[in-house]
Amino acid sequence: MMPYRGNHVSTVDCNRDEPLCRVRHADLRRLSDESVFKVYCPACTEGVLLVKRDPETLDLISEDRCLFCGQWFVYEDETIGGEPVTRVEP
Ligand SMILES: [Zn+2]
Known about the structure:
Structural class: mainly beta
Strand content: 15-25%
Order of helices and strands: EEEEEEEE
Bound molecules: zinc ion
Helix content: under 10%
Shape: globular
Largest sheet: 3 strands, mixed
Distance between the termini: 16 Å
């Protein structure tokens, strides 16, 4: 896994130009027990990752961005919340 190298002052889009970060969704902290998908961004720790779906097939895809800091992630999990994750490699 690539270590996070961004700065530690979080502002909107502050990590948008940071390199891709590979993470395991299963290791991230969930917002609540009610959603298996929403997790806190490990880069800025206050933004949220929703897990994206392919707009046509609605399958989960492995690429995501933090809604707040813009950090770009790829999930290494085979499944998230019991659903298979389609690999989207940049
Ligand atoms: Zn973030």
